[in-house]
Specification:
Layout lengths: L1 E12 L2 E7 L10 E5 L7 E4 L8 E7 L6 H6 L6 E8 L12 E7 L4 H9 L4 E8 L16 E5 L7 E2 L2 H7 L7 E6 L1 H13 L7 E5 L2
Helix pairs in contact: 3-4
Bound molecules: flavin-adenine dinucleotide.
Flavin-adenine dinucleotide binds next to strand 4, strand 5 and helix 1.
Length: about 210
């Protein structure tokens, strides 16, 4: 556990922001999460690492939740302040044996975070990333992805790749059966997507999930 100094804050609107901190030699694999909070705070929460192990800084992407303790406390911090970080933890990772497989990544909201880390660390990945969001401002750092591989499913505005939810996109698109599927975000989405994939013949051992809430 260490206190990491904030060296940058990026605001995306819609209450979402990236905290960039000193790395302090934190060791992690892409897809893992840390536990973060104020240095003397009572509450601490899990956040997927947004940056890549090849970066010399540490980033997390956070959505401020109305009435939420930690997402609001961290939002009030400034450059130079410290964040208490523990980790890294978790098994939402890609095995080196699977690196050449086709991947289907499905995220809602800030659930795109581990996929940002995967795609930065493994630049040759064969992936499609389907991202469910409410508004266009949640298209976090889309310039960092191959634009032919990322699809925004926007539920409350026009102008994304698809108007509607990720479940709608999945029902209307062909899914290569040999894909390894990674799901990250809210449990409602993960449950629904599991059912769709099961009905298309995907076995559970090809599906990995990280639930945020
Ligand atoms: C493994 C893991 C990784 C996570 N990674 C991230 C991440 O990279 N970025 C991120 O923003 N969050 C992430 N989360 C969620 C995060 O840990 C907190 O739950 C979130 O920041 C809310 O904490 P809070 O203290 O502000 O709200 P709390 O005071 O704990 O509670 C607020 C309420 O909001 C609900 N809630 C939690 N998250 C959301 C959400 N995104 N949208 C709507 N309601 C929500 C909770 O269920 C709760 O009922 C992750 C969770 C897990 C388990």
């Amino acid at each position: 556990m260490a206190n990491h100094r904030i060296i940058g804050i990026r605001d995306f609107g819609a209450g979402s922001y990236v905290l960039r901190m000193d790395r302090c030699n934190l060791d992690f694999e892409p897809g893992q999460y840390i536990i973060a909070g104020l240095p003397h705070g009572i509450h601490r929460r899990e956040y997927s690492v947004y940056s890549s192990p090849s970066d010399d800084f540490l980033e997390i992407l956070i959505k401020e939740i109305d009435g939420g303790h930690v997402s609001s406390e961290l939002r009030r911090l400034s450059v130079g302040d410290k964040v208490n970080v523990e980790g890294a933890f978790g098994y939402f990772r890609i095995s080196v044996d699977d690196l050449s497989a086709p991947f289907l990544f499905i995220a809602t909201g800030t659930g795109i975070s581990p996929f940002h880390s995967f795609t930065r660390f493994y630049p040759d990945l064969d992936y499609r990333l389907v991202h469910g969001i409410r508004s266009l401002e949640e298209r976090y750092d889309y310039a960092d992805y191959d634009k032919t591989r990322i699809f925004s499913c926007v539920s409350r505005e026009e102008g994304g790749s698809y108007q509607g939810r990720v479940t709608g996109w999945l029902k209307e698109n062909r899914l290569p059966e040999d894909s390894l599927v990674y799901l990250c975000g809210n449990s409602g989405m993960v449950d629904e997507v599991y059912s769709i994939l099961a009905s298309r013949g995907f076995s559970a051992d090809r599906i990995h999930a990280e639930l945020y809430f």
